[in-house]
Trimethylamine methyltransferase
Amino acid sequence: MALANRIKVVGDAELSRIHEETVEVLETTGVEFQSEEALALFKSNGAEVSGHRVKFPRPLLESSIESAPSSLNLWGRDEVKRITIGKGQPHTHVEPSNGCVLTQDMDRGRRSSTMADLVDFFKLARWWTGPLPMKSAQGSTPRTQALQAG
């Protein structure tokens, strides 16, 4: 994935800290799973299973990360409707998922999200087809004008 297509939210030091603290939680606290099939799979691959709780030793986590593919494809019903995530990704993908707890905008800054924000995020994701639009010196781009119109 080209550097220009990546959104960097945290620096390398912060990312390393997040990784190390995540490993600590997965090693010491673990995660609860309700699926007996999943519990058996984790146990057979070296995880510590106690009841429904699974703890992941660092070597298992590291080997899982190393064996993960560099990219994956998400396919739509129409084979043409496919997006690549990871290596070879042509542009940033916007997918609002379940919405945001917090929203930040140019006018009001960081604040709690509202239902209107969720609707706006879905509009943005549905509309999104390429690289981030840039605001020109003369004002909004045609794409951002369409968004602002609702």
Q: What stands out?
A: The helical segments are 12-28, 36-44, 58-67, 115-127, 142-149. Strands lie at 31-32, 48-50, 53-55, 71-75, 82-86, 102-105, 109-112. The first helix runs from residue 12 to 28. Confidence is low (pLDDT under 50) at residues 1-5, 131-139.
